[in-house]
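Page 42, continued from yesterday. The earlier attempt failed because a stray header line got pasted into the input along with the sequence. Redoing it now with the clean sequence only.
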Amino acid sequence: MYEIGTPGSLEASDWFDELALDPEAHPVAMGTRALGDRPWLVADGHRDHELAIKNELLASRRDQVLYATEHSVEAATELARLVDAPAAPAGMHPIERAARSVQEDLCLLQRLPTGWHLDASCLCAPTRWHLQEKVGQHIAVVHGPVRGYDERITTKVDQLFDRLTDRPVWRRNWFLMTDTTLFQPDRAEHETLIPSGQVLDDIYIRSERQTLRRVIDDWIVFTIRVQQESLRQLLTTDARRLKFVDWVANVSPDFGVRRHLTDPQRAELLAGLT
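This time it went through. Structure tokens are written below.
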């Protein structure tokens, strides 16, 4: 069974401090940690709204957000049990049944002789990637094209996944965004430039709280929970503002662009925050 957090227990006041804001940290490093006393999956005050969005996407964009396979049924059935998914209409794939009951997106990965590959998935809050382009691919391809995600990282990821048990590990990924739509599969041709006077209200940090755990032999689940707030809602103390400003000022152009930070936006952020 999964443990949920108290509604509202991971609002901006909590999750901002979990972000990696070291300007020298490699943006594609795994950085996984044991959950400890943290819940595996988190329910909060946005639950009803976000589940309604999932239901709408599964009705209107089904081919874009759901990929189910027959050979994943056993693993997906166990996943549905782990998340306490309620009964569903006959014929519904268990990964859809599981996904409709939690705010997280759910991706099942299978261990093949060539490594861990993305299999069945329900992905309703992608951050600039298309599920149908990634299913069946090795996890390294799922993360591509990402300069710096090289063979060494691929090997380390496979080794990490091989060691996973039913005790979840977690990490956070994050991006700077100007659009809070949950379903964002397409990459922007050009990033929207927000002037300095509007950066606090019109730039958002979109965080992905990700977990990994084994479901059954040779199958693991990768969960992705999007949480997003404006900089004004996040930078509520001098310490937070200084830490974020340090990242903006010192992250390299190459690493910054992985978080959607362009050089013109860097200048506007520094002008608006200092």
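Notes: Residues 47-60 form the longest helix (14 residues).
Reminder to self: strip header lines before submitting.
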